[in-house]
Specification:
49% of the residues lie in helices and 16% in strands. By secondary structure, the protein is α+β, with helices and mostly antiparallel strands. It is elongated and about 125 Å long.
């Protein structure tokens, strides 16, 4: 069907409004509607339409790959789908600039294109992509949309606009409006019902999780081996900006600590939760009294509904953090509710660990399965009776003789735990083993200790001029209560950084990082000035493509309209219509053949047969047959029936 005037532009503007990309949607919408005032049309061939459609497809696939590399496959594909309207807008634009006003189906489907190449006589229909484009705008605007009422109202208005224009003439406007309102009401009721059902099911799941285990607002459980699984991924989690001296003080970014070890699992128990209140315009969040003497800027990836922040140890205040909610617990976990893909904030921090509870009873307990091993080791090392600082130094010195390895050579002997095997036999392991062993050995010496997890800041990107934190930079260390305060101890041998970088970095990481950087810059485009060279380059490329595609193919609007009419209605110039005007009128609903048999029996049978072939046969008429049709009709018109 033919779209009502300005509906495609309005749908694209609606998409821009709902997705926050109105500055991109507005010029595209104007471009889509401009052919209504521009008389120039272009004699485009099927290959030209196919070229534009192929370029749009390539661009969409590239966009999906970039987003998948940056966000993961599922989130990347969904994110790319949100950008379908501007990606596919060139197809509708060239359709409206073409002299036919439609697009051959071969342009959109390579399979049909191949069929046409094998069989040139195959008739390829011409289609109007406007309706599909409007539907895509509405659907894409709804992906991940939280403004439910505004979105629903806009979608209803666009649907009413399109359907009203195609309303049958015999249908009364009042009846049509009543039926449309009833359908809209039923749709809104169904939408609200589904939202309520989703909320109810989500509440049941959340309650079930809360009853299953003692845990805080987010991750409160970690298993030995979890970080090892993370280290197989090179996804970028965060970007750190600041002078080298400041970044060096924030080498470890803490996310969560745990105080109870059961089996091979660390749990966070009895940690008090607290919702924070923002200040100074809603973007400043205070975690501990006073202001830190140091500061860095962090760009953090959004994770699910609430993101566990990776923060320096002594963080006291977060500024420029546009979060709707921020909460923390006594074990140092800070959760933020933020929209989007990436968000930035400033972290102020000092020398000592802040927003952290004093030791709990769990911080002194040795698990039953590990007690004998670690008490014996504490006795052998002479840890009992030492001050906490001396005990911590001796534990660090003892573990420095162990070696780092990402993989275990063999499973532990029967009846021996993995941690006991690490301490007594292999003395080889990765950071989880070192951190867990140091924590339990300190507890055996009477020093409260916790198992801490987060990321190590260890890789500088010349491309981004920032320190990038990858999933494989996940790290575990120990926090010990020494001289009335918590301190960080990292017992893992320092050569783990170089060993992991050499073993784990894939050969194609540089190319993927370029795509990740481009995707990140796009997500932060609000900070990119309009005059940036990237936008100029993009405009030049688009202009060059348009020039290569359209040069030498301009036709006047009148000639374009006539050519389009001939292609849309083959046989419209048949002389048979002139012949019909000289005959007695047809009865309503009377077939053409029956009418001719009644008013001129047998006289125009050959002319009717040639006319119908001219109108409906994809092969048309030969030159001789076309001349014969013209002759029969003109001679018949000159001779009254």
């Amino acid at each position: 069907m033919s779209l009502p005037p300005f509906l495609a532009g309005a749908a694209l503007a609606f998409w821009g409004w709902q997705t926050g990309n109105l500055l991109i949607a507005a010029p595209l919408a104007i471009a889509l509607e401009a052919p209504r005032w521009v008389r120039t049309r272009f004699a485009l061939e099927p290959a030209d339409y196919a070229r534009v459609a192929d370029l749009c497809t390539i661009f969409f696939v590239g966009l999906a790959v970039v987003m998948a590399a940056d966000r993961g496959v599922a989130h990347g594909v969904i994110g790319a789908f949100r950008w379908l309207p501007p990606v596919l807008a060139p197809i509708l634009l060239v359709q409206r600039l073409g002299e036919d006003g439609r697009v051959p189906l071969t342009a959109l489907f390579r399979y049909i294109r191949k069929q046409k190449e094998r069989n040139p006589a195959l008739r390829v229909p011409m289609i109007d992509t406007g309706g599909v484009f409007v539907a895509l705008c509405v659907i894409s605007a709804g992906v991940g949309n939280t403004e439910a009422r505004a979105y629903f109202a806009g979608a209803v208005l666009l649907a009413a606009w399109g359907l009203l224009a195609t309303r049958p003439r015999h249908a009364r406007l009042a009846a049509w409006a009543l039926l449309f309102a009833a359908g809209t009401g039923a749709g809104y009721a169904g939408h609200q019902g589904m939202a309520g059902l989703q909320s109810w099911i989500g509440g049941l799941i959340a309650e079930w999780h809360l009853r299953r285990a003692e845990h805080d607002l987010s991750r409160s459980v970690t298993d030995i081996g979890t970080l090892g699984r993370l280290k197989q991924r090179d996804t970028i989690i965060a970007r750190v900006y600041g002078p080298p001296s400041e970044v060096a003080r924030a080498r470890l970014l803490h996310r969560a600590s745990y105080n109870a070890y059961v089996g091979t699992t660390w749990l966070g128990r009895r940690a008090a939760n607290e919702d924070l209140q923002s200040a100074e315009g809603g973007a400043t969040w205070t975690l501990a009294p006073g202001r830190g003497a140091h500061a860095i800027r962090i760009a953090h990836r959004v994770e699910r509904r609430r993101t566990a922040l990776a923060l320096p140890a002594g963080v006291t205040r977060l500024t420029a953090l546009a979060a709707t909610e921020v909460s923390r617990n006594g074990l140092g976990l800070v959760l933020a509710t933020v929209e989007g893909d990436w968000f930035q904030f400033n972290a102020e921090f000092g020398e000592s660990i802040a927003h952290y509870e004093a030791p709990l009873p769990e911080d002194r307990l040795l698990p039953l399965a590990e007690r004998a091993t670690f008490e014996r080791l504490a006795k052998e090392l002479g840890l009992r009776g030492l001050s906490p600082a001396q005990a911590a130094a001796r534990v660090m010195r003892h573990l420095s003789g162990f070696s780092y390895s990402l993989w275990r050579d063999a499973p532990p002997p029967a009846g021996v735990t993995p941690l006991a095997d690490f301490m007594t036999r292999t003395q080889r392991g990765h950071c989880e083993y070192f951190a867990a062993a140091a924590a339990l050995l300190l507890r055996a010496a009477g020093v409260p200790a916790r198992y801490a997890t987060g990321y190590a800041v260890m890789e500088h990107s010349k491309l981004e001029q920032a320190w990038i934190v990858r999933a494989r930079h996940a790290h575990a260390w120990t926090r010990a209560w020494v001289d009335g305060r918590w301190i960080d101890l990292d017992p893992t041998p320092p050569d783990w950084v170089g060993e992991e970088a050499g073993r784990l970095a894939p050969l194609w990481e540089g190319a993927l990082d370029l795509l990740r950087w481009a995707s990140y810059r796009w997500s932060q485009r609000g900070e990119i000035e309009a005059g940036d060279a990237w936008w100029v380059l993009l405009g030049v490329l688009v202009a060059l493509l348009a020039w290569r595609l359209l040069r030498g193919k301009r036709v006047t609007q009148g000639a374009a309209a006539a050519a389009a009419a001939r292609r849309r209605f083959p046989g419209r110039d048949s002389e048979f219509y002139e012949l019909m005007r000289g005959l007695p009128p047809r009865e309503p609903g009377e077939p053409l053949s029956a009418w001719l048999a009644r008013v001129a029996p047998g006289k125009f049978d050959e002319a009717l047969r040639l006319h119908q072939r001219y109108r409906f046969d994809p092969r048309g008429l030969s030159d001789a047959e076309r001349a014969r049709l013209r002759e029969l009709c003109r001679s018949g018109a000159a001779t009254p029936a």
